[in-house]
Amino acid sequence: MDKEDFLSNNRVDSETWGLANIDWSVLSEIASDYNAQLDSLRDTAELFSRIIQRFSAVHSVRWRVKETSHLLEKIVRKRAANNEKYKDINKDNYFAIVSDLVGIRVLHLFKNEYLSIDADLKKNWEPIETPIAYVREGDSSSLMEKLKELGFDVKLHSDGYRSVHYICSSQHLRRKILVEIQVRTIFEEAWSEIDHQVRYPNFSDSPLVSYFLTIFNRLAGSADEMGTFVKDLTSELDGMNAKLIDANREKEEAFMAMDRMISDLEQGKQQDAETRKKIGELQDEIRKLKGISSVGNRKDAALAAMTIASMQPREPTSISREIYSNGTAAEMVRQMEASEKSKRDNLLELAHQQCISSVAMAEAARYKGFAGSSVMESFCNKSAGSALSSTLLSPYEQMRGKPESK
What we know:
Order of helices and strands: HHHHEHHEHEHEEEHHHHHHH
CATH architecture of the largest domain: 2-Layer Sandwich
Number of domains: 2
Radius of gyration: 61 Å
Mean pLDDT: 75
Low-confidence stretches: 307-330, 362-406
Number of strands: 6
Helix content: 55-70%
CATH class of the largest domain: Alpha Beta
CATH topology of the largest domain: Beta Polymerase, domain 2
């Protein structure tokens, strides 16, 4: 590429070339060195793009490596504009002066997502310059204040576009490479692409084209606002739906708890009735057991006394006196008259058993030579009454007059 082709292809007029005041040989050396670094620059661009694409708020990533002719054109125009930074540029230092040899475009859908992307970028790279936030005329003061709080240098863009620019560096090989990262919405990207293609190279100074591009810029801005509004609306609706779901779940849980409570109450009511019934039955059994225990003790005592008496030979008079003085059967009769029918039956049964035991004892005494029948008659007359005595004496009436043979 020679000088004339360069000036013609890049629309650099003689006046601009003169103001640049740079020797063509310096540009040629820069071009040769730059062409040798293109592969390294592409690798850097791909590395940045892969990392940034992982950010949650990023929709898509585009990258480009600046073309050689565009690099030379930029140097000429910067020098013509008397930019101090480009005053002593050469092949040894242009990598450190030109900050957009690698350009990354980070696109997101909704306006406020730049906040998340800003945080992710700063986690991975340290900007070597203060990031710049370009705003358009009419943007709210609150937006500008927010950008300043985040550390941006806020600037009003002459063409009316919004974008956030970072300058970062990478050095995976010997040379440090500067990378410009631009973050903007998809609507801003579409407008800037259309603006660039329509304006350049033939209508950059046309007031009519500029006027309609400005209208288009406002439409793109309105689309951004509408997209953000719809996003916020859906978030609000999701929140309301979540609250409704939670409320319905809480209602169902409350109903289930009430059902369990009612069931517990019903079971408790049934258990109370059953418990009262069982307690009553137990109390009846205890009363019965107490009565039986009392009678049983006396019965056991009487039987024990009669048994002991029957086992030892005594004179009839002493046996009669013991049975009579003991008064066990008479005492039982008095208890039977004072107790309930059930207790009287029990005592009658006990008396009956004791009389039977006494009969046995009397029989034993008779065979020992004692007047057993008189003893038995005396005992039964005092103990059992007419019915019981007749029952007990009937077998002994037959025994009268049958003394034991000696």
